[in-house]
Design a protein that fits this description.
single chain; 154 residues; mainly alpha; 9 helices
Length: 154
């Protein structure tokens, strides 16, 4: 299934079928294909819907959603550069204890450390304050985001 066809189906019915989730989670070259697509073609609505679906699956009792797949979905959301999405990524991080430990906080910072810090500082929610507190431990993204190499989970 081609990415364009998946996106057309999503936008025509606002449904993400299990086959689409399995395809995104399939690993290897397919993951790279998705990331490369979203580097060139922005579709924030789809990216957020996928992350929401992955969070929903992770929170289910059987939790059949490895945090590496959540990280991929967070990465795709982050590629859109919307600072407000840091709170959605924080929600993913807080899905459960294992995810909190495993999902990289750096994924909240696609808009930049200072921009994200400023945004979270202006928010009044407890979640924003917790996310802001976590950012205090991150001072350099140069080693995390690379223009030449995709992260290990992709």
């Amino acid at each position: 299934m081609k990415i364009k066809k998946i996106l057309d189906g999503f936008h025509n019915g606002i449904v993400i079928y299990p086959e689409v989730i399995a395809l995104i989670r399939s690993g290897g070259e397919r993951r790279k294909e998705f990331v490369n697509y979203f580097i060139k073609n922005k579709d924030r609505e789809f990216a957020l819907a996928i992350l929401d679906k992955f969070i929903e699956i992770r929170k289910q009792p059987d939790g059949e959603m490895p945090f590496e797949d959540l990280m991929l979905a967070c990465y795709i959301v982050g590629l859109h550069g919307c600072v407000a999405d840091c709170l959605k990524i924080w929600e993913a991080k807080e899905a459960d204890f294992d995810t909190w430990c495993g999902l990289d906080s750096e994924l909240m910072l696609f808009a930049g450390i200072q921009q994200t810090h400023d945004f979270l500082s202006r928010q009044k929610s407890d979640e924003a304050m917790k996310a802001l507190e976590r950012l205090e431990y991150i001072d350099d993204l140069e080693g995390y985001f690379s223009a030449t190499q995709l992260p290990w989970y992709i």
